[in-house]
């Protein structure tokens, strides 16, 4: 193989894998159901007022309800990229941050298991990693988790000084607590490495003291946020007022009972395989330990009988002991007596990797929203475990096999680009920025000077905030923590199911417009839409692929209704 091609291979595989990940992330933004519109509004308000929002200011139903905007800095970044590049620029930033996170974990996997293993497992895990494709602040958490893991591994290897680690983690933790609520993952990572050092090295070891200092720093750093204690405790209090059930917060087993999503079953297979990979390493460790025990015991007896390890004993040990025994005793000097505690079972299974693998696996099983972070951490763990269980795979992979793997990934990339992969794998149409026509309903509202009060459904709240605030406020938006739990239980859901409750709320709020995302497949939403289509007091005046708008039949809306009313016979209900 030409030398030039030989040099390209280490770059070809990661580049192709990143291209594939980018393709999976490049489905157009459906702002109608996304949080992004509200995040951009958060950033705009902060830069206009230099204050973070601490109440539900976007809603007219509960404007004074206290809520900590724990991801305010993400909103600022989203807004700045939106100013420069519009939704396409914001989408591109999200893709680049996500790709950077993937590359960090891939680099760790490459180092632990070699390029072929890292590439194979990256390809197999991409469906899990790409589960979360919406533009959200959590992408910053994936990136920072990767940076933390990388830095802590370098410190474990003795390649990063205590001072550099402490300063870097402190700065990053201050950023993290203001970017996304998953900042507590920083605590988990540092705390897990600290636990490993306490167990393996003892409390007085210099590395243990360094990690203890870092743990204290990342704990203290989370108070550097506009909400201080409230912001620091947000991960533990956010569900105190959470009256609306979201798919992303449900367990795999619950979702499998109501949804037909192949990724749910695939996650179960992957998580079982990860557990199996740890078991394989344990089995190999036990086999090696058993095979070398007789030689080790013989060596110990001879050393103790003579008092010192002379040259003939060392020659005997080197000729009789297997590779594992040599590794265990390679640091012993001629005058050193081997102590029993120097022989550790399971040295190839680190406490950190075991805890992170099981911990993120359980987190993903309990909530769909954790699939991506589980997949990212599973990548280096799989590569390391398989490399330890089958060492020959890491050392004997041929260049031809690596090029064949690159060819397979390249074909998959082409199938995605051409759309042929849709026959086997569902994914949204490619678009950088908004899906075509996504903004038209807001443009219709503004162009015809429609007025509120608006009744809207949960999903579309962020969309309305982006386009209409502060001229119009929303009835509800997609933040359960920003509304009292009883609001969802006693008002929002019942008013869509029960006409009496609807009429009571209409009399209270005097709704003039209904702005609704009709792909809301909750039973109450579909029931509500059917009722409004058949309600003579309301006229549908706009509908597209995402949204339907109704206006109340009154004098204010007469002209618009006469021009744009959609006949009821144009509507039909289809099974969801």
Description:
By secondary structure, the protein is mainly α. The chain has two domains: 3-30 and 68-279 and 351-423, no CATH class; 440-570. Helix content is 63%, strand content 3%. The protein is built from 25 helices and four strands. The protein has helices at residues 3-25, 36-49, 72-113, 115-129, 138-156, 162-179, 184-201, 206-221, 228-232, 234-237, 252-258, 262-306, 311-320, 323-329, 351-366, 371-389, 391-396, 399-418, 440-447, 461-468, 485-492, 494-497, 499-509, 523-533, 558-564; strands at 454-456, 513-517, 538-543, 547-552. A four-stranded mixed sheet has the order 1-2-4-3, with helices on one face. The longest helix is centred in the middle third of the chain and has 45 residues, at 262-306. The chain starts with a helix and ends in a 12-residue tail after the last helix.
Task: Supply the number of structural domains.
Answer: 2
How many E-type strands?
A: 4
SSE sequence, one letter per element: HHHHHHHHHHHHHHHHHHHEHHHHEHEEH
Structural class by secondary-structure content? mainly alpha
Main sheet record: 4 strands, mixed
Roughly how many Å apart are the termini? 55 Å
Shape: globular
Strand content: under 5%
Outline of the structure:
The protein has 576 residues and is mainly alpha-helical. Helix content is 63%, strand content 3%.
């Amino acid at each position: 193989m030409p030398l030039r091609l030989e040099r390209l291979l280490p770059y070809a595989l990661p580049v192709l894998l990143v291209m594939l990940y980018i393709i999976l992330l490049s489905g157009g933004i459906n702002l109608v159901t996304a949080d992004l519109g509200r995040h951009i509004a958060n950033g705009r308000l902060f830069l206009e007022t230099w204050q973070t929002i601490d109440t539900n200011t976007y809603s007219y139903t509960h404007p004074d309800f206290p809520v900590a905007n724990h991801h305010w800095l993400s909103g600022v970044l989203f807004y700045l990229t939106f100013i420069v590049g519009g939704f396409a620029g914001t989408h591109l930033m999200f893709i680049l941050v996500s790709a950077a996170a993937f590359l960090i974990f891939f680099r760790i996997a490459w180092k632990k298991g070699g390029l072929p293993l890292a590439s194979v497992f990256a390809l197999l895990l991409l469906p899990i990693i790409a589960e979360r494709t919406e533009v959200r602040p959590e992408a910053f958490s994936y990136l920072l988790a990767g940076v933390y893991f990388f830095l802590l591994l370098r410190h474990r290897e003795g390649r990063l000084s205590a001072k550099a680690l402490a300063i870097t983690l402190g700065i990053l933790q201050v950023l993290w607590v203001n970017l996304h609520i998953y900042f507590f993952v920083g605590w988990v990572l540092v705390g897990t490495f600290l636990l490993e050092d306490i167990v393996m090295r003892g409390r007085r070891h210099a590395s243990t003291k360094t990690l203890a200092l870092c743990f204290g720093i990342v704990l203290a750093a989370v108070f550097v946020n506009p909400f201080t204690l409230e912001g620091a405790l947000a991960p533990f209090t956010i569900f105190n007022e959470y009256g609306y059930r979201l798919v992303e917060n449900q367990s795999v087993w619950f979702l499998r009972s109501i949804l037909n999503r192949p990724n749910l079953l695939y996650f179960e297979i992957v998580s079982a395989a990860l557990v199996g990979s740890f078991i394989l390493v344990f089995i190999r460790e036990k086999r090696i330990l058993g095979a070398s025990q007789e030689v080790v015991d013989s060596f110990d007896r001879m050393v103790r009988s003579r008092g010192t390890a002379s040259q003939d004993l060392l020659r005997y040990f080197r000729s009789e002991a297997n590779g594992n025994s040599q590794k265990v005793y390679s640091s012993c000097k001629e005058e050193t007596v081997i102590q029993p505690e120097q022989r550790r079972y399971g040295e190839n299974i680190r406490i950190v990797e075991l805890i992170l693998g099981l911990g993120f696996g359980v987190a993903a099983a309990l909530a769909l929203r954790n699939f991506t972070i589980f997949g990212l951490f599973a990548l280096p763990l799989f590569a390391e475990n398989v490399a330890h269980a089958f060492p020959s795979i890491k050392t004997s992979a041929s260049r031809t096999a690596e090029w064949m793997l690159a060819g397979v990934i390249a074909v998959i990339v082409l199938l995605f680009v051409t759309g042929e992969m849709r026959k086997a794998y569902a994914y949204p149409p490619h678009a950088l920025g908004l899906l075509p026509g996504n903004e038209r309903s807001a443009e219709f509202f503004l162009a015809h000077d429609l007025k509120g009060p608006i009744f809207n459904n949960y999903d579309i709240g962020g969309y309305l905030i982006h386009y209409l605030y502060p001229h119009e406020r929303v009835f509800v938006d997609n933040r359960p923590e920003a509304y009292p739990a009883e609001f969802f239980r006693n008002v929002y859901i019942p008013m869509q199911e029960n006409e009496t409750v609807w009429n009571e709320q209409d009399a209270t709020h005097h709704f003039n417009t209904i702005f609704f995302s009709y792909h809301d497949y909750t039973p109450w939403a579909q029931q509500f839409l059917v009722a409004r289509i058949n309600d003579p007091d309301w006229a549908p005046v706009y509908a597209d692929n995402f949204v339907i708008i109704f206006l109340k039949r009154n004098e204010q809306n007469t002209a618009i209704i006469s021009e744009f009313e959609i006949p009821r016979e144009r509507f039909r209900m289809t099974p969801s």
